[in-house]
Amino acid sequence: MRIKSVQINNYKSMGDTDNTLRFDSDIITLIGKNETGKSNILLALAGLKFFKPVSKTVFADCNKFLLEKKVSAQIEVEIVNADLMSIGKRWHTDISTVTFFFSEDDSDTFSMRFDGCLRGIMEEDPEFSSLQSDTVTVIEQFLKQYPTDQNMQNLLSVVRHSQQMFVPLPEYVNSFRQGHLNSDQQKSNRQIFDSFWQVRQKHYDLFSQILPVILNFDNTLLRDVYSYDELKAKEALMKDTALSRYLDAIGTDAKEFLKANEHLPHTEHHSLRNKINKRNEQLAKRFNEFYKTEQIGFRLEFDSKRYIFLFTSGEASESFLFSERSTGLRWFFSCFMELERSGASKRALLLIDEPACHLHVNAQKKVLELFKVLASDGRQIIYTTHSPYMIDPNALSEIKVVTKKQYITHVFDLHKARFEGESEMETLTPLARALDCDFCHNIGPSFKKTNLIVEGITDYYYLMGMFDVLHISDEDRPYVIPSCGADNISRLVSIMIGWGCDFKVLYDSDSKGQEAAEKLRQLLVDPNDFTAKVFHVAQDADKTIEDLLSDADRKRLRGSGKELKAKFFLEQIKQGGFAPDTVTCENFRQLLTRTGIRT
After folding, report:
1. DSSP 121-163
2. 419 pLDDT exceeds 60?
3. Alpha carbon distance 1, 380 (integer Å)
4. Would you call 567 helix, strand, or coil by DSSP?
């Protein structure tokens, strides 16, 4: 199971256009200036639950500039056979769309419409279909007597659409049962009615087991020490998010936790504390299966009505206060506990607002690495950031730019982002503009590698995909920088020369590429530089990078335009779903060899 896309309509600053997040990978990075609406996207998603009641009050804050339009959300989920087999069902691989929307009745909850294999499984269940038909008949009998009863009409609609719409059971369900089916004469109808809701709920419970759990992680870390006195009030425990997360993860309630530091007989103290630390050992064991960087122990000491949290490490099990270990490890441990308490360690969508924002540079980079570990095991992540160190320059397809125009939030893929007043000289820096930071001090060309400047984002996608296919090592890979068209490459070259960066340029072989290359020849004073640094994708005229793909591989690409096809190419290679044939591999190998990249 993986989420393919998320669309949020008319919530807070969101509108109903440019409001879709597509998961081109399992990590989405949201960047943008303050007040553009990044956090609103996370808030909207955090309020959604599959096949469980979602209160309308969570989404009461609609866009005040679009009051005539309702709040809604849509999530596309790819469900594969392995998911269905885990709940004892069979179906073909499918994209199921789940849409959350305001109910037309007066209930205080969102409704949820679903399709694809979820709907198909219910429709093909003979038990459900039979009970649904019989329950409709029961309700229609009473509607003949009470034709104007609105609650009864709503109930009939819920029953008829249960295989495609989840509506939390409203009060009029129990009202109908108690008011019309409670007599001995209605015993048979009551059994039909009750059985229908049970089978309906059984399906919903099964679907909940394969759909993602959406978790809003708040970055709060466990402290080294908590005092009994400050935690004595239950409210104090609940206010500390990190501590309540820990208690849920080990299955201990606040009462038991407090009791372990109260005046009790020695044997009872010893038993309670042992019990908690046994659970800590189990938690550490599961964490080590998750972390894999080093073996970490975890225990709690009780001292003079204090709770002291310790990590242990190494063969001698040397103890460290939490604050004595890296913030990256502490952050990862907190994230793990959030997954543990949710019971969704491998089917979670993690929402993280400004992760590691107070950490130093190396710690931020460590958290970015940990994201990749999280996403490698079936999870997905959406996070916001202003920090250039929390962005992977080799994964531009992960980046979504959030902007606001006329009070409405818009979301774009990085290569489609446009900013008002942007000059042509800033074509290298849409990312820096979105981050509101100085390009030359934070991000941009590599000072350690050769920078390969290409005409656009499609070139970037194809090259990054083929680097993987041809097993180009990280050491041999150039740092690929997509321009915004062939004409802008000369400007980027000027920057490279000014900053003393090594570079090469790759143009298409079409007329635009040829003309732009000639202009660049005039910029490069040394003719040898032009020969050594400027290349075309093919030696034949009128060729673009897409022409390096074989006819067979081009037919396998999906998407309505060349950018979407290129993104599909990279995404499928990353997921192991696309293996280019020998013709494509040889064409790219020849290109890389000509540009001096070791294959």
Report:
1. HHHT-HHHHHHHHHHHHHHHHHHHH-TT-HHHHHHHHHHHTTT
2. no
3. 10
4. helix
Alpha carbons within 13 angstroms on the beta-carbon side of residue 68 total 0
If you search the block for the tokens 């949201």, which residue do you land on? Answer: 30
DSSP 410: E
Has residue 328 got a pLDDT over 80?
no
Q: Tell me the three-class secondary structure of 270-305, residue by residue.
A: HHHHHHHHHHHHHHHHHHHHHHCCCCEEEEEEEECC
Residue showing tokens 């402290």: 223
Distance (Å, whole) CA 93 – CA 116: 10
Q: Which helix (H) or strand (E) holds 535?
A: strand 534-536
Q: How would you label 138-152 residue by residue, b for 16+ Cβ within 10 Å and e otherwise? A: bbeebeeeeeeeebb
Whether the Cβ atoms of residue 3 and residue 349 lie closer than 8 Å to each other: yes
Evaluated on CA atoms 258, 259, 260, 262, the torsion sign reads positive
Dihedrals phi, psi of 474, to nearest 5 degrees: -60, -35
Beta bridge partners of 400: 30, 413
For the beta carbon of residue 179, count every other beta carbon within 10 angstroms. Answer: 12
Residue with tokens 């004469």: 185
Euclidean distance between CA atoms 434 and 416, whole angstroms: 12
Helix (H, G, I), strand (E, B), or coil: what is residue 78?
Answer: strand
The percentage of residues in the chain with a pLDDT greater than 70, rounded to a whole number, is 90
Expressed in angstroms, the distance from the first to the final Cα of the chain is: 35
The token pair at 122 is 């219910």
Residue-wise pLDDT for 168-189, tens only, equals 876 778 888 888 888 888 899 9
Report d(CA 324, CA 305) in Å as an integer. 22
Tokens of 489: 């490459």
Q: Of 308, 557, 578, nearest to 468 (Cα)?
A: 578
Report the distance separating Cα 128 and Cα 150, nearest Å.
25
Reference 580, options 541, 550, 546, 539; nearest CA is 550
Q: How far apart are CA 115 and CA 445, in angstroms?
A: 46
> Smallest Cα–Cα separation from 24: which of 594, 579, 580, 566?
566
CA distance 539 to 541: 7
Rounded mean pLDDT of 209-222?
Answer: 86
Q: What is the pLDDT of residues 11-27, one digit of tens each?
A: 999 998 898 998 888 89
Report, as an integer, the average pLDDT of 323-332.
82
